[in-house]
Amino acid sequence: MFNRFALQAQDTLSLSLRQVVAMAKDKSIASRQASTLRETHYWEYMTYKSNYQPQLSLTGTLPGYTKSFIQVLQPNGTIDFQPVHNNNSSLELAFSQQIFQTGGTISGSTSLQRFDDFDRNVTIYNGAPYGLGYIQPLFQFNALKWDRRIEPLKYNESQQAYIESMEEIAMAASGYFFDLLLAQVDLQIAATNLKNTQSIMKIANLKFGMGKVTKNEILQLQLEELKVQKAAGVAHRDMELATYNLKAYTGLQSSDQIRLLMPQATIGMKIETEKALAEAFQNRSDAIAFGRRLEEAKRDVAKAKGDNGLNASLNSRLGFSKSGTRLGQVYQSPKDQQVLELTLAIPILDWGRQKARRKTAMANQQFTQYSVEQDKQNFIQKIITEVNLLDMMKGQLLLTAKAEQIAAEKYQIAKERYVLGNLSITDLSIAFQENDQAKRDHINSLRDFWGAYYELRYLSLYDFETDQKIIYNKM
């Protein structure tokens, strides 16, 4: 499992930022949840596509045996109970195909029925060798037509949302990485400071014996040592907690200690705002959702207009049928049958209900257009801001790296001057603090830079390092 990761020493696992991100995408619970959700959307899409495919079904009653008494109305109005002992079995094979252009349904069937009267020892067959029918709704909303326009958008949206989920995992993993890295650096700082403080204490004690330093300076150094010991304890606690959080999120099943490698300070690439915007509008689920929301608003208006209370349906059927005492008679010169029906339901008075529904749908459509336009503006501004932020973080990295170097040199000089006796303990303590803060500031600048980079990947779904779209295996 860990063949990709180099072991720095026995029981110590060295990991880079990219390796931690890759582990989280591969093994984390969040990645499994994202994969499951993608699979759910896939099967929902397959369900939608099946609506446009022919449906074939076999139905029947085998057997339909009855032995009982039933009530029979007599000519004089009285009820008499007669014995019934029969078998009424039937079998039908039928297909149907919906026509999305018109919203109609074409169907066909073949059926056979057998009736056995055991009391009279009579058997009768009835069947329809074949029949064709067509049902066409008139003046009604065609859901199939609109689904064909909207459902593919929803599916593409879900596929891109899966990629976004994986990039969100990368951002979260980056946060856990830098939490642990900062804790490890704090622990390293505390260990170094403790060693330096103890070394200075030895020198100060010698000077105190010669009367060259005051008791107050000795007490100040002792206080500094206690502070460093306390900082080491806090850093160790934070490191244990950060290690647990990182392992839990990435799915790392290992008892080894983790040593994080310092990530590179920059990425050799130039990100153009126009390129980031173009990729975002091509790749993001939000960009697909803009069009999908507008189509859904149009669909709702069409539905409000179609469901106007005027319902009509044309039903036609052509086929053959026949009955007989033998099975073969059903299929010998069957008689033709035709059905043609036009059903109507016309509202006379609805007190403006349909008009109100139509106006509501049109108002919602207008609101959706405004909302989408606003979301587009926010979408564009977010990407522009993130590109600018990433450029700014590059500059901050250079500044904090330089500040760390200067603070380290200043601390070294202060330590040497204190040993020589021409620097106060207060100035030495300030140099301590500035050096520690400069190291933390540099780590935080690295966190901000890589956080902005992964945020931009998430917003555009584009890998600017390799100059290609971010893709995962599609279902």
Automatic annotation (TrEMBL):
Principal location listed in the UniProt entry: membrane
SUPFAM superfamilies: Outer membrane efflux proteins (OEP)
Localisation: Cell outer membrane
Protein name: Outer membrane protein TolC
GO MF: efflux transmembrane transporter activity; porin activity
Family, as annotated: Belongs to the outer membrane factor (OMF) (TC 1.B.17) family.
Gene Ontology CC: cell outer membrane; efflux pump complex
Organism listed in the record: Pedobacter westerhofensis
Top-level division of the source organism's lineage: Bacteria
Gene3D superfamilies according to UniProt: Outer membrane efflux proteins (OEP) (1.20.1600.10)
Record's keyword terms, sorted: Cell outer membrane, Membrane, Transmembrane, Transmembrane beta strand, Transport
